[in-house]
Amino acid sequence: MKILVLNGVNLDMLGKREAGIYGSESLEDLYKRIDSLELDAEIEYFQSNSEEGIIKKIHSHAQEGYYCGVFNFGAHTHTNVAIRDAILAVDFPFYEVHISNVYSREEFRHVSFFSDIAIGCIVGFGFDGYEFALQKILRSKNGS
């Protein structure tokens, strides 16, 4: 089983930006943490600050054979219809993850263009949210 962990805009700045909100760990630390879980799946990581890069990666769903995705679009969550349309165009199942609790932040962050098409949403659990999503994907693949 192949799972895509996709991170969007500014998430390459984890560990350098707003530590009170996002913590002190980097995106590379997240990847190392996921790799240490020794999941029975092939995990592919992708990060882009570009709408085009994210859309191209989503469009590769069928060619790459992704079973499911764990997506954190960053600020694109609240603004991006084009990425939403790309997901719908290729019928890419995914979990939406946010490191911070977006509902305890500015009101504009309370709106997601993706929550209604996601399998589920995990918000405010830091890097644990990625692990929760991956574990759920593996459990659902195994019928539980």
Automatic annotation (TrEMBL):
UniProt GO MF annotations: 3-dehydroquinate dehydratase activity
Catalytic activity, as annotated: 3-dehydroquinate = 3-dehydroshikimate + H2O
Listed EC numbers: 4.2.1.10
UniProtKB keywords: Amino-acid biosynthesis, Aromatic amino acid biosynthesis, Lyase
A GO biological-process term: amino acid biosynthetic process
Similarity comment: Belongs to the type-II 3-dehydroquinase family.
The protein's assembly and partners: Homododecamer.
Protein name per Swiss-Prot or TrEMBL: 3-dehydroquinate dehydratase
Organism in which the protein naturally occurs: SAR86 cluster bacterium
